[in-house]
Amino acid sequence: MPSRRTCAATAKSDRPEAIDHYTIFHYVGDMIGLLDALETSTAVIAGHDVGANVAWQAALLRPDRFRAVIGLSVPFRPRGPVPPTSVMPRTADAQFYQLYFQEPGIAEAEFERDPRATVRNMLYGGSGDAPRGGGADAGTNASMVPRGGGFLRGPAAPATLPAWLSERDVDFYAAEFQRTGFRGALNWYRNLDRNWELSAPFAGARVPVPALYIAGDRDMVVAVPGMDQLLANFKNFVPALRDKRMLPGCGHWTQQERPDEVSAAMIDFLRSLPS
Hints:
Elements: E1 6-7, E2 12-13, H1 24-37, E3 43-48, H2 50-61, E4 66-72, E5 94-96, H3 97-100, H4 106-112, H5 115-125, H6 138-142, E6 144-146, H7 167-180, H8 183-187, H9 192-198, E7 211-216, H10 220-223, H11 227-232, H12 234-237, E8 241-247, H13 254-257, H14 259-272
């Protein structure tokens, strides 16, 4: 049976309105539905950012269907003792960007004002080519949204884009978000605490399948406070981790910024797996 978000008539993703249609079980269920639609019993799953979260959880929950996992940028995070939003940074003047995403309509209005500028500036701003502030708290500051302000505060993309990003790429992404809006993407963040509640039976579970992790050393995800300790103890949570690669000078968009290195690492990993 096809994935629940696949529209057979258009072959484009749909976008359920209900926030609770975007839980981790829906996402992992979609991946299982894709395997079933392809009549494939098992696969290696790979994902970037939110997709990496989905990939890690798919490997944790269904190792019978996903025999290995590749995570880009975002590492596997074990379930914490309290709901995620309760420990996110907030001050009188600013809040963590994932808290800014919680109230439906606010971030949508900002991003949909000019989808092309949003996509263009996000892609450049998160890359290794964009300037970064210095200091130990750079990761925290970059992730905070001023009260009454917006998320899109970084440097605007230059007139000439970096070699890894073309205006044609931007046009495609912008057209898709013009069609769908940003609500579906933002609804992932609105389920963070719900996912925490739903995952209670799996507290303490470790990812049992072979794994590869790749990130850029200029990725703001890597700079978030506490991430260094998580990565240092990664094998406690992913005991079959084969490799952990940090790409020098690379930002958040690993597979776009460093396609050759990422592809080579993925191919090496796949070749190392039992046939």
